[in-house]
Amino acid sequence: MNEAIKEFACQLTDLAQTEALGEALGKNLKAGDLVILTGALGAGKTTLTQSLGAGLNVREGIISPTFVLARQHPSLADGPTLIHVDAYRLKDQNDVDTLDLESTLAESVTVVEWGLGKVEHLTDSRLEITLDREVNAVAVENPWEESEEELDEPREFALKAIGPRWDSENFAQLKDNLRSAINAQRTGEKHA
């Protein structure tokens, strides 16, 4: 029986809200969770992953794994390791399988940038997140040299929760925690 996809979307006004949402997301994840991030260059995928890592309490220094394909960030407490993957240069599931993500999936949180259509076979449950700042973005001549100010633009956040891990109760709690984090950031409160 195929469970219905659950969805949540919101407008993030700046990077601070993106970071607050990412940290709240990280606090809701556990070992075995798969997160697929989609968005154009500069949409905020790595920023979201950095704050997700803060929520998981993993070692700092999260950068895009573009040239190494995957990086491990161990927990600073007793939580799961964060596996951060950039699948942009991978063609398909066969290329993904060469990374052997299956061997670490059960004890880690795995975040895959550019993974849509490539990593869904790894588990029956996942979060698919799309970040889109292009809806409101000013045209950028050279996207490889975006300034901090340009990156601090509003963006659309859309999340799809798929599979039994994200049953109605878990998804409702995730959605409530994400909303609370965004609202707390808007009002200047610290989200616990």
Plain-language structure description:
This protein has 192 residues and is an alpha/beta fold. The protein is 30% helix and 22% strand. The protein is built from 6 helices and 7 strands; from the N terminus they run βαβαββααββαβα. The protein has a 7-stranded mixed sheet. Strand 3 and strand 4 form a beta hairpin.
Task: Summarize the entry for a quick read.
With 192 residues, this protein is α/β, with parallel strands linked by helices. It contains six helices and seven strands, in the order βαβαββααββαβα.
Instruction: Compute the average pLDDT.
Output: 85
Assembly type of the shown chains?
single chain
Order of helices and strands: EHEHEEHHEEHEH
Task: Specify the structural class.
Answer: alpha/beta
Poorly predicted ranges (pLDDT <50, ≥5 residues)? 143-150
**Mind describing the biggest β-sheet?**
7 strands, mixed
Distance between the termini: 37 Å
The tally of helices reads: 6
Radius of gyration: 16 Å
Overall strand count: 7
Give the strand line-up of the largest sheet: 1-7-6-2-5-4-3
Shape: globular
Blueprint (SSEs and pairs):
Layout: E1 6-12, H1 15-28, E2 34-38, H2 45-56, E3 70-73, E4 81-86, H3 93-97, H4 102-105, E5 108-113, E6 126-132, H5 148-151, E7 155-162, H6 168-186
Parallel strand pairs: 2-5, 2-6, 4-5
Antiparallel strand pairs: 1-7, 3-4, 6-7
Helix pairs in contact: 1-2, 1-6
Search tags:
globular; 192 residues; 7 strands; seven-stranded mixed beta sheet
